Amino acid sequence: MLAYITRRLVYGLVTLLALSIIVFTLLQLSGGGPLDRLKLNPRMAPYIQALTEQWGLDQPLYKQYWTWLRNYVSPCTSTDPQGCTSSFGLKNAIPIIMLVLAIAATAFVVYSVKNHWRGALVLLVWFVAILFAFRNMSIAFNWGISFQGAGPVWDLVFSRVGATFRLGFTALLLALMVGIPLGIYQAIRQYSFFDQLGTTAAFVAFSTPIFVIALALQILLALKLEQWTGVKLFYVTGMNNPGYGEMSFLQQIADTLQHLTLPALSIALISLAGYSRFQRASMLDVLHSDYLRTAKAKGLPRRRIIVKHALRNALIPIVTLVSLDVAFIIGGAIITESIFGWPGIGRLYIVAIGTVDYPVVMSIVMIIGIGIVIMNIVADILYGVMDPRVRYD
Amino acid sequence: MTDIEYNLESEEPELALEAEGLSVEPITQWDLFSARLRRHRLAMLSALFLALLVVLVLIAPLLPLHPPTERLLDESGRSLVNIAPRPGLWFGTDELGRDVLSRIIYGGRASLIVGLTAGILVALFGTLVGSLAGYYPGSVDQALMRFTDLWLGLPLLPVAIVVGRILPEIAFLPGWLKQGPFGIALLIGFLSWGSLARIVRAEFLSLREKEFVEAARAAGAPDRRIVFRHILPNAMSPIIVTTTLVVGSAIIIEAALSFLGFGVPPPTPTWGGMVSEGGRLAARGFWWELVFSGAALVATVLAINFFGDGLRDALDPTQTIERK
Predict the structure, then answer these.
(1) Considering the domain boundaries, does residue A10 fall inside one?
(2) Could you tell me the CATH number of the domain that includes residue A194?
(3) pLDDT digits (tens, 9 = 90+) for B7-45
(4) What percent of chain B has pLDDT over 70?
(5) pLDDT, tens digit, 9 for 90 and up, residues A177-225
(6) DSSP letters along B29-61, please?
């Protein structure tokens, strides 16, 4: 198991390195480069040379890459000349402590809890640990300074990761909570009217680009609904209203939901369709298996057969699907954030690409890559935890 | 049950059977396949729709349409901006006074070119990598599959956006790659062959252990003959189905890139670009460009996916001709 995880981590690192080299090289191919816009302004002419030297744009490509890579993985210290505002301190230990605690808690759960709550508990532990570590993080890495004058990249990116996480996690939760029961119900009532309807709807959702869904939801449920009924149910743009700080707790929840629902729903709908199809197939597989026939032959009540025998095994394969879906959800977030003006890394990414802001683009691509690699490994481990038939070699 | 005595000893058994009133036309795999496909009503409808779309897009210059980039004027010379659908301008005009119907038909060109080119590219490259890996286990397989895994690990949309952004600026590329839909098609194709390679490899791994392959090898058939004559035809079904789905997703990715402004550059009409523009207009009450371009996009991808579904069923030899 440990060897397996180590191997996966090494593969993950190689993938990330390749990703960084590919994107870095691609960015260099762009004709103008990051100083292109400044060159349009004649008063900037004296600074161009200085900036080129300061940012190292005149150095050979491999040197630039090496500088980027070295800085990207090095935490800020108080002596760093640029790209850092916060410095290394005692508080930086919190994420590491949380990591150790989470590993210990996972080990404890795996060895002490033997029933089907195990997977859920492990997930919960990691969720709390990551959230807590993230909230208390003061560590910063030297990710450079935005070429467009937006300050240190680490601050820029990390002030927005939370928003994207909120959006993506809500979408995932929504897709899971609707998609899985839908698929199970369809499998139990195979070939019923509801099943056929669900299948067709999933096909349509699958074939609809996310930006069409997002625009349709935005225009129908936010703009037109207000025009026609006068009720402002959802907001078109942003994450919270300006006066969020002064609102009461209930108002804050309402405000958050009014902003969050539509973008999250746009991302969730396509994933939801995928989950329901997959869950239906997986449930049908189990329903037609030999041991289920045995359970029926024993004369167990139908409810017990479905809940206790079929469901628990039919839920396992979806873990893989969800982990592979993370890339899709992030891609969806990039598009949805642009449509709904959501202040996350997706929108920042589009803006940074438009202005060829190398450090910001590289940082966000790498965050996305790291997220996908980690989720794939977590899913593989969870799969083994949930399904005792899986052996790692 | 009537018993028919087959005179199999006769010189010409077929004639003997025909004399009994029985047909001896052999039923080929193709007959079975097309019979199964024809029973799939949605797939046939989708095929019809796609065929119609292809014809429309091909003969677009011959149709009585305004050019897609022409800004229309009325009799008194005022520009026809944001005109609602009406006879003559069935889909209305956009904010620059261009005919939306004409733009949708011409926009279909970009989508179909990207979908088909990316599909062919993925089919060729994915099959090549997958079959090499599946037929030569060991170091070739290991190397190719590590490469495929790495490729599959790349986040598709973020990387596609970077390439789409810088594509028009790459100095050493020829003009038709930089500006047109072919560059986008190549980009999407090269980013999405990974899953097909995996599927083909799995097919090859299982097929190469089958008895008929062993028999061919025992008979002294060279590798080339075994692969092209015995294994590949049996692996065609997943290749065709996966490629069909890739065509659909390539069209969606192209539209997403154009929507974000990193796809085929304007003024060339694209469905993604029109949805983006139409979204802005729809917020002001001019709904038609969004509705029609969105519908064109969804209908096309839906038809491709339905057709792929029909193909999957029809290519499955275990499926009986009767469908529920």
Answers:
(1) no
(2) 1.10.3720.10
(3) 555 556 566 666 666 766 777 878 888 888 888 888 899
(4) 90
(5) 999 999 999 999 888 999 999 988 998 998 999 999 999 999 988 888 8
(6) HHHHHHHHHHH-HHHHHHHHHHHHHHHHHHTGG
The reply to whether A69 falls in a domain is no
A258 burial via Cβ count (<10 Å: 0-12, 13-18, 19+): middle
- Domain around A343: 154-386
> Is A206 within 8 Å of chain B by CB?
yes
Structure tokens at A37: 């816009």
Nearest-CA residue of chain A relative to B298? A208
Residue A122 lies in a domain: no
Q: Tell me if A365 and B158 make a contact (CB, 8 A cut-off).
A: yes
Q: Give chain B's largest Cα–Cα span.
A: 89
Q: What is the pLDDT of residue A82?
A: 58
Per-residue tokens: B172: 């050493």
CA B113 to chain centre: 10
The whole-number pLDDT of residue A374 equals 85
Mean pLDDT of A89-105: 74
Neighbours of B152 (CB within 10 A): 19
Q: How many structural domains does chain A have?
A: 1
Six token digits for residue A199 = 């299948």
In a domain, A98, yes or no: no
Q: H/E/C letters for each residue in B100-144?
A: HHHHHHHHHHHHHHHHHHHHHHHHHHHHHHHHHHHHCCCHHHHHH
CB atoms within 10 A of CB B313: 16
Helix (H, G, I), strand (E, B) or coil at A156: helix
Mean pLDDT of A349-353: 90
Residues of A in contact with B150 (CB under 8 A): 14-15, 18
Query: Given a cut of 60, is residue A285 above it in pLDDT?
Result: yes
Cβ A142 vs Cβ A78: under 8 Å: no
H/E stretch holding B319 reads none
Identify which of B248, B262, B283 has the shortest CB distance to residue A223: B283
ipTM of the complex: 0.84
Nearest CA in chain A to B305: A207
In total, the C-beta contacts within 8 angstroms joining chain A to chain B are: 133
Section A125-134 average pLDDT: 80
Computed over every residue of chain A, the mean pLDDT equals 83
